[in-house]
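About this split. The held-out portion is used to measure sequence recovery: a designer receives only the structure tokens and must propose an amino acid at every position. Recovery is the fraction of positions where the proposal matches the reference. Here is one held-out target exactly as it appears in the evaluation file.
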């Protein structure tokens, strides 16, 4: 039996699937339900399964060759196909949500404000990550928890 789910169904479903997690982290970060939900890796398992399915169903010798030794022109040609764009988009959804989850937990542990970084991460993952790194550094450097001095070495988180 072959499972052949429509591309638009998976694309739209993945887009909608991530929204409750972002909503919880951004609007209700200190709620116990948010903490329990974000402690789980199940959302990433589900999204990764969609990604793997799309990848496996749409992989052919030509695309495998292009991805094995990527050249910009080959990648550009690859992304002109709807299936490739869907694969890439689900990839972004998985990775941005994973980075958002990391930002969320770092904020929960350190008390650093994360709303702005999470919103940026939702729309442009790397900018949200950079925003959080800068915010954490500024918070630690200029507003250290009581008992610490500003001469302490910045942490990697």
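Reference sequence for scoring:
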């Amino acid at each position: 039996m072959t499972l052949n789910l429509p591309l638009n169904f998976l694309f739209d479903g993945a887009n909608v699937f991530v929204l409750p997690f972002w909503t919880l982290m951004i609007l209700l970060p200190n709620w116990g339900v948010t903490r329990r939900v974000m402690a789980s890796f199940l959302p990433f398992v589900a999204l990764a399964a969609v990604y793997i399915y799309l990848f496996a169903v749409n992989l052919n010798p030509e695309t495998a060759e292009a991805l094995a030794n990527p050249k910009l022109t080959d990648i550009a040609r690859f992304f002109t196909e709807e299936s490739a764009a869907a694969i890439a988009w689900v990839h972004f959804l998985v990775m941005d949500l994973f980075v958002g989850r990391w930002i969320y937990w770092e904020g929960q542990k350190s008390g650093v404000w994360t709303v702005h970084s999470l919103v940026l991460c939702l729309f442009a993952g790397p900018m949200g990550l950079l925003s959080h790194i800068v915010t954490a550094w500024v918070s630690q450097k200029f507003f250290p928890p009581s008992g610490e001095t500003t001469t302490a070495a910045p942490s990697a988180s």
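Annotator remark: The chain has eight helices and no strands.
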